Amino acid sequence: MPSTTMKPALHHIESAAVQAAMRRARTGQAMPLGPDPAVHLSDDELSGMAQVLRHRLRLDTLSRPVVIRRAPDSLHPLLAGGQHYRAIALSIPLGGRALGFLAAYNDRRRLIFDITAPCPHCRESVPTEEINRLEDLGDYLLQARDFLGGSPRFRSSPAHTANCPARGD
Length: 169
Prior knowledge:
- This protein is an alpha+beta fold.
- The chain is built from 3 helices and 5 strands, in the order H-H-E-E-E-E-E-H.
- The protein has helices at about 10-25, 45-55, 135-140; strands at about 70-75, 85-95, 95-105, 110-120, 125-130.
- Strand 1 and strand 2 (about 85-95) form a beta hairpin.
- Helix 1 crosses helix 3 (about 135-140).
- It starts with 11 loop residues before the first helix and ends in a 27-residue tail after the last helix.
């Protein structure tokens, strides 16, 4: 009897992301988002960042509620080149695993989200891919190379081990 490898079922967030990426690939257009919620109008910065991620990934349109855990990141700066304020670590629990994100401002002062994953060299959790909409997450899950560009923060992440060859001091 031939062996079959069972792929784990996609969580409803992942399923929605894959569908959105496939729709963008077919039509050439992403779903319109509208303006981001204002971070400074939230109760606190952590909640504000989570609201923007929820908006960009259109999590409120899914059939089931989605929890976003949030905490200050101990390693990455909030602003490109900054030293005093910390980026925000966000995670979306998916059963026994989680999607991790790092929220920070890029050098153009635009709020960006990087999905975090283990570095292929040092295995530390580092910013891996910039994910700013549901379609981007779907491309990441599908490993659709035509849309993936990697995170500009991958090589500069202080989370890499000191001797990691991916580290670009």
